[in-house]
Amino acid sequence: MLTDRAKEILDGAQDKMQEAVLFLEEDLKTYRVGKANPSIFNGVTVNYYGTPTPIHQVSSVTAPDARTLAIQPWEKSLIGAIEKAILDANLGFTPSNNGEIIRCVVPALTEDRRKELVKKAKGAGESAKVVVRNARRDAIDLLKKAQKNEGMSEDTEKEGEGEVQKITDKNVKAIDDIVAAKEKEILTV
After folding, report:
1. Is 3 exposed, middle or buried (0-12, 13-18, 19+ CB in 10 A)?
2. What is the dihedral of CA 69, 73, 76, 79, to 10 degrees?
3. Are strands 51-54 and 59-65 parallel, antiparallel or unpaired?
4. Which of 82, 105, 128 is the last residue of a domain?
5. What confidence tens digit (pLDDT) does each residue in 163-185 have?
6. Residue 104 dihedral angles phi and psi, to the nearest 5°
7. In angstroms, rounded to a whole number, what is the distance separating the alpha carbons of residues 132 and 173?
8. Nearest to residue 179, comparing CAs of 121, 134, 131, 138?
9. Looking at the structure, do residues 98 and 157 belong to the same domain, yes or no?
10. What does DSSP say about strands 102-105 and 68-73: parallel, antiparallel, or unpaired?
């Protein structure tokens, strides 16, 4: 039976691992994979009255069709600044505007670019796994210290280590599944 201290350590490890999985999901959403996705602009900031501000906070970003992104600024005076921010972000888009809406046509990905994106996605997956493994190691270290210094029983410590491993395996599988799904999405022409 796990003690409150052991549960606390396991919860902390689970939280760190879950953060790594969520970060990976958010990071992979920003990959441009040949179809329009408004989250591509998540990391792009525009100079809004001297303050770097994310595009989605000063405009409406939509995907009217699979190959086009439309950005409608809430203030027409921002059109030039938003176009400059998109070009500076080096996302591979050439924005054009009609005085009210900025349109970005999403070019089809080349085979080389697809392979490069798959490699990048796998690298991001490995980085997330490193975070998960570090959280596992830290949790096991905390369990051993609790057994040594706080009077936790050896059985509880061993049971806690087993639970940490189960949580680790679950999160590593989630990371593998996320990366595999993104790889499939990237390679689908």
Report:
1. middle
2. -50
3. unpaired
4. 105
5. 999 999 999 999 999 999 988 88
6. -125, 120
7. 11
8. 121
9. no
10. antiparallel
49 by Cβ neighbours in 10 Å (0-12 / 13-18 / 19+) ranks as exposed
Number of domains in the chain: 2
- Amino acid occupying residue 139: A
The reported pTM is 0.70
Domain boundary among 74, 105, 136: 105
Of the chain, the end-to-end C-alpha distance in Å amounts to 52
Domain that holds residue 143: 4-30+110-187
DSSP string, 24-58: HHHHHHTS--SS--GGGGTT-EEEETTEEEEGGGT
CATH code for position 117 = 1.10.132.20
Do 68 and 24 share a structural domain?
no
User: Does 68 share its domain with 119?
Assistant: no
Nearest-angstrom CA–CA distance, 6 and 159: 9
Domain CATH code at residue 84: 3.30.1360.40
Strand partners, 47: 52
Place of tokens 């921002």: 78
Using the predicted structure, report yes or no on whether residue 32 has a pLDDT greater than 70: no
